Amino acid sequence: MFDQGLLTRSRPNILVVGAVKILAIQFRYLGDAVLMTPALRALAQQFPSIELHVAVAAEVAPVLEHLPWLKRVWALPRVRGNATALKTWPVIRALRQERFDRSVDFSGNDRSAIISLLCGARDRLGPSRKRGFLGHKFCYTQTIELSKGGHQTGPNLQLLRDWGITPPEPPQIEIRADPARAGLAEQLLPRPAILCHVATSQSKKDWPITHWAELYRLATGLGLPLMFSSGVAPREQKLLEELKTLVPDAPALPTLPDLATFLAVLARARLVVCGCTGPLHFAAALGVPTIGLFGPSSASLWAPLGEPHRALQAPDCSCGSDTSVCVSAAHCIAKISPEAVVRFVLQALDANEMSRSSPIDY
User: Fold this and answer.
1) For residue 316, what pLDDT is reported?
2) How many CB atoms lie within 10 A of CB 203?
3) pLDDT band at 361 (very low <50, low <70, confident <90, very high)
4) Residue 51 forms beta bridges with which residues?
5) Domain 4-163 maps to which CATH number in 3.40.50.2000, 3.40.190.10, 3.60.40.10, 3.40.50.1000?
């Protein structure tokens, strides 16, 4: 049992060595949970005596469950557009019973701010926001103004600066697949292949299906094994169906039973090619080389960091954050050609030519 009296400070906001319990909160999307892991890892490494817990939306929990330096992942129910207070309160009550010394909110939205307040931690850190409900800022005992720009792993590490946490260089995202799913994953992907995930959460980020079909034709001609996958949403499954009408012999994964199985399959891939979406970050965090296709989102902000990862950035995209569909006369991300992707695939498969990820314009 941890002694709560061991939480001390060398100056007002600096953690020093001592056995403390910390709750990290991230109530956004799947990819955001992955991008939080460098900050969590820095906490765990620099203060080995802490007991580190994480609270996330239930659908996100499988992404973090098998990290050995997390004490527990708390799954909070979430239904988009609907209040789930009755389902959430038992989890909140259990969190309060943990008697956390500190909490850190990495998302800063209204719901995570309320969870920060209700978790019962004595010291509660979060990002300052100009928007949100009236009592938002009172949910924390300390807020930090985050600077804009730079890679999206940066704000999470900025938030911890007053706790004396040294940012890792470079920040490395990290997750683990469930080892119990390894056998099923091997059945689904018998040999390592280039896994191409055709869908994203927003249609404006989707590389056109005609481009995926041409990529398959080019890759097959070079003897490169491709396997296709998509998300479980009807729109995403429809994209996979459209691909099969264009190239009926293109192999595709079946609809998988859960996210944990998908992560186990991703871990077996030789290389992953997809747009700016959760699976891109999952693969990179599992240690699988990636090629990211970026149109309306910026590769410099969102592309996985490190030598095994490459990014292609479509130029002159006019899509903003207020729309989920492309507003240009010609689909922005379509400017990335299948031929350019094939060149990157060939380079990525040559381990001696791998270099640090950097956006390339085509």
Assistant:
1) 79
2) 15
3) very low
4) 21
5) 3.40.50.2000
